[in-house]
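Usage

Read records sequentially. Each one opens with the input sequence:
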Amino acid sequence: MAGALARIKTGVKGLDEVLGGGLPAQSNVLLFGSPMCGKKPLLMELVFGGLKQGIPALYLLTDYSYRDWKKMMAISGQNIEEFEKKGLARVIDCYSKQFDLSLRDGEVVTYPEAPSAISSISLHISRAEKALLEQKCPFGYRVGFHSLSALFEATTPAAVSRFLQFTIGKFRNSNATVFYALEKGMHDEKVVTMAKHLMDGVFEFNDSGQISISGIIGAQHTPQNFRMSERGFEFISQTASGRVQQAAGASAKNESPLEKFVESHSNEPSEAPGIGQGEQLPQVQLPLKARIKKSKSK
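and closes with the structure output:
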């Protein structure tokens, strides 16, 4: 289990205290919750927090284009361009090539054919892993995987399970710490249980605007309050005087700039290069947020 390994600093305010001194190295952690609950900002901050410590990063995107992802990061005050120039940040964009077959792999960004192209995604991961390991960081590298739900939608649970078992093994062997997003309410219980079973820990966002942490040795297992603001994602100490409930209520009412951006774009296709105004798009899956809203309206 990852709990027997050395702990690493997350870079998220208040989280290391909740985890009992940091996150066990080489952990694979599932961020599980409903749309707009805060999974995306937390995943971004966990990976970017590593970059600020000199830990290389890989962003694996299945339901956003690279350009849209960078816009959302910039809104949160996270500029990865300097890290891209240093070779510390890589991106696997599994979304955009569905819309533009002319896209070609570059040094920073590579483009598998689609979220359903699991074998191709595995090859892209191997290439990115090789490049990031050349940085020789003693803390390995971090991965932000957004999201597993798009894989489950594009293929079968059995195929995703095989992919995850193989990929998680590769990540552990290469000293990677990985964060995966999974949407609550989109999958049946067997799929969710399988995903949780493969992980070292789960951060589950509940309907009360709190996060419950399970599977991580030394972590506080009582639901944790948090807030999102221009200053970033912050876990709020349970010992703080009467301000805890007030801050928790504020976080539920006040969306961060990133959450507002995602909400305002929830009914639009994710920006894809090469598509002109008014052109007909091929039959491909909608962005994850739009698919959830469409399914609920039926």
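Summary fields computed downstream for this record:
- The chain has eleven helices and twelve strands.
- The chain has one domain: 2-297.
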